[in-house]
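Per reviewer request, we include the raw input and output of the structure prediction for the construct analysed in the revised manuscript.
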Amino acid sequence: MITRRHKNLVQHDLAHFPSVVLLGPRQVGKTTLARALASEDPDALYLDLEDPSDAARLDNPGRYLDLHRSRLVIIDEVQRMPDLFGVLRGQIDARRRDGRTSGHFLLLGSASGALLRQSAQSLAGRVAYHELPGLDALETGPDLNRPWLRGGFPDSLTAASDDLSMRWRADFIRTYLERDLPQAGLRAPAVTLRRFWTMLAHRQTSIFNATELARSLGISVPAVNRYADTLVDLMLLRRMQPYLVNVGKRLIKTPKLLVRDSGVVHALLNLRSLEELLGHP
């Protein structure tokens, strides 16, 4: 297993804040990192809200968490239970009164916008945010060709062959198109969403032009902006604002939209090997 340099950073945050929100797209390694932290703390409690049995434990969250007031509680996919944040505020305040000022909750989620809104409303002053990106050059070693081709998702990067890596990324894209994007409230045909995502990959580093994309896809400009906002929220795209000395101009100039992971870009463009990638215009 590749050691994540972010582990020490998250441990630092847990030592100084009552709760830490760990953000990142699916399969980037949030759960692996959280379990590695839990393995070093025998009293840590891990709950996955995609597991019905774990979700059922929080039917009465206040009573359940009261039973584990002295433990670090790790809650995965926490955005699935938005009402929980109000309960966590009370739990944090109760633990503070008991003399514990930090290391109460580690919250994991794959929808940054939803999590930030939910936590900001209830946990202001009680939470630190940490974004977990894909594996980078400091973690993968000196060979940069493999992570450039396969991207930074651990399962893609460490696959036994380029073909298996490509298959993993194709399945990853399909899962988002058929499950995660609809669950995020994006009601659109998967074919249209794939074309939109692929067009962004073709235009990587270009200025985002919603009107041109809408015309090419045969949809409205508000629909294009909604697609983009959802993919940014799910941490699959990065909205990069222009860097200008005048701060006001930074806010009004058109940003770029970047597909965050190079391996996803290459899967969308069907570039299966380093040779194909080097020959791509």
